[in-house]
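Cross-check.
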Amino acid sequence: MCELLGMSFKEPVCAAVSLDLFQVRGQKNPDGWGLAFYRDCLLQVIKEAKPAVGSSLYDFIEGYPRSETFISHVRRSTVGHRSYVNTHPFYRQLAIGSDMREFIFAHNGTLNDVSRLELGRFTPVGETDSERAFCALMETIAAEEISHWDRSSYRIMESRLNEINDGSNTLNCLFSDGTRLFCYSDENRYNDGLRFTEWSHPFTTMPLVQGDTHLGVLDVQSTNTESATGPSTSGYVIVTKALSEGDWTDFSPGQLMVFEGGSIVYS
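Predicted model, tokenized:
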């Protein structure tokens, strides 16, 4: 069963974060791992088609990323063999007028009926149902020429996600254009759906527990060099499985939530 993690913060944070727990979960999700984030408005994707456990690259990047937006994924494959092109997150560029965006996408679930997902300019590189769903979403954004996001365009995307999620398809997913983090929770609560928690400065460490087992701590660190009286950093962490005890809010079935700059802009 794949695992998802998303983060949206007002200012760049260091996310050495949550990767420790994801590395542990990589034992049960051995088919690849990936981390995507934006630095200076440019997308960076780091991924491997191997377990996160024992990966020297995974260990190296834990202290490297600093960004407002993160998406992380560990994979247990249901469609597509273990390979780099089948490893999440997937990414594409889209230009609408003068607006060029780099999108990333990660999925938890299985789409049993992907033949009905019409594709045009965007086609999968790998074999996964997940990448095909991503291409279908990109087609929707391109066809609707969405460059300025408002409540109407968010509803278009929510409707498209509901269509993809219909029937026996299961779909928890996170995707981003570098400014907004889109989070959709499966309509039948597959893998218990998504949940989120708010985080604000000054950050405190969050104990990571799974049952009676202590797995470490979640230690989000602000990269803001301002004094304690300066602007505060706040944001949200979104996951498939609660990382700890505490105040996690479940998504409603089939719900799209959009985060931007550490705030909820659509729900």
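The mean pLDDT is 82. The CA atoms of residues 189 and 253 lie 6 Å apart. Passed to J.P. for a second look.
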